[in-house]
Write a structure and sequence with these properties.
The chain is mainly β and 203 residues long. Helices cover 7% and strands 41% of the residues.
Length: 203
């Protein structure tokens, strides 16, 4: 399972509102808050198989699932067209001491589900990769999309997408492990609210 970062009473707010489609990154304490990052060391670990000097990579709790509803239907279980969830995030990196850069690659695995009575259908899911610096401030965010298909009568499909590599220019004295890569699905406010409301029932 991937690391899923969720909120806690004993953590610091690190960043917020990454579901916005614009390039502007809104930081705490602006009105829209999306996510709190776990600050307690050892509570959650990320990508245990990654090289020691590489940034950790994790999926964001509130943005790890996207539910697409039927057009014009209310956002409830009876109106779900399909759902997509991030199920794995693998990372590796190349570090250049000459240029003091870290070039990270990601493989993001998704699982899509729907009622197994549907016809053949092709979809595209939007997602993003954000980089947090040593102080947990978001220094970059890039948007991507992954295509997937359901065969007739197919209810589940798993697929992997590899976004462009992420190059981090590190100040002197900093290392790759001082940075964090966050992956999330690009949600509308309606989809984010649905995830949060659903979480209240499943926790």
């Amino acid at each position: 399972k991937p690391t899923i970062l969720r909120g806690s009473r004993n953590i610091r707010y690190a960043w917020a509102a990454l579901w916005n489609t614009g390039s502007k990154i809104m930081k705490f304490p602006h009105i829209r808050r999306m996510m709190m990052l776990v600050a307690a060391a050892g509570l959650l670990s990320a990508c245990a198989n990654k090289p020691a000097d590489c940034p950790d990579a994790a999926a964001l709790g509130d943005a790890s699932m996207l539910t697409q509803f039927k057009p014009g239907a209310p956002p409830d279980l009876s109106s779900v067209l399909y759902s997509v969830q991030i199920v794995d995030v693998d990372t590796s990196c190349d570090i250049s001491k000459d240029s003091n850069t870290c070039d990270s690659s990601l493989d993001v695995t998704f699982r899509a589900t729907r009622a197994p009575t549907g016809v053949e259908a092709d979809y595209t899911v939007p997602y993003f990769v954000a980089v947090a610096g040593p102080d947990n401030a978001i220094i970059s965010k890039n948007a991507y999309s992954a295509e997937f298909s359901f065969a007739p009568g197919q209810g589940t499909v798993t697929f992997t997408d590899s976004p462009d590599s992420t190059v981090i220019k590190m100040p002197k004295g900093k290392n790759g492990y001082d940075y964090q890569l966050y992956v999330g699905l690009q949600l509308t406010k309606e989809q984010l609210d649905y995830n949060r409301n659903l979480g209240r029932y499943v926790q």
